[in-house]
């Protein structure tokens, strides 16, 4: 057993009632995995934002006409918000390895300074991991090829750029799951 875990257990027994338990720090692999998960959405977000602002990314025909009618406009807003949401959710993975994943930062209104209940982080993270992993696997094993086979979809260089932009999303789910399990191990199971 590591010295840090022994110290955390000793702190639990000697700490007065109501004080927070010392949680061991995340291992280096978990920190790297959390950062990689947060970065996994960046390339698709940049591609989507460029598309939202009307940069030609390879769509043709009716699909191109439908999108072009709303860019700039609500289509741009939709692409920017979707990209920001995905990046925000991916960035929450970093909270599983940082102190703000255990105590809400004080600057956040109403809940700042409160301890994060581990299950309120672990359960959504593991459910999200399962969904993202399933979607990634479905995309890898047939869904992506079917979508690119559509006549209006980007082909050639446009299809390659879109594929390379979206491919990192496949690792988001497994990385989130691994980091969430480590967070659960450190906050729930180590006593």
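-> sequence recovered:
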């Amino acid at each position: 057993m590591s010295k840090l875990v022994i110290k955390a257990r000793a702190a639990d027994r000697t700490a007065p009632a109501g004080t927070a338990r010392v949680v061991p720090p995340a291992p280096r692999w978990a920190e790297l995995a959390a950062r990689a998960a947060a970065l996994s959405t960046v390339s698709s977000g940049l591609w989507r934002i460029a598309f939202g602002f009307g940069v030609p990314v390879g769509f043709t025909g009716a699909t191109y006409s439908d999108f072009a009618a709303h860019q700039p406009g609500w289509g741009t807003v939709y692409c920017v918000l979707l990209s920001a949401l995905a990046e925000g959710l991916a960035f929450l993975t970093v909270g599983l390895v940082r102190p703000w994943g255990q105590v809400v930062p004080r600057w956040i209104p109403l809940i700042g300074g409160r301890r994060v209940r581990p299950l309120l982080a672990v359960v959504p993270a593991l459910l999200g991991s399962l969904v993202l992993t399933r979607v990634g696997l479905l995309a890898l094993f047939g869904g992506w090829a079917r979508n690119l086979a559509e006549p209006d979809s980007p082909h050639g260089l446009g299809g390659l750029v879109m594929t390379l932009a979206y491919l990192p999303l496949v690792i988001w789910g497994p990385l989130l799951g691994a980091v969430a399990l480590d967070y659960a191990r450190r906050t729930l199971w180590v006593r």
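The radius of gyration is 21 Å.
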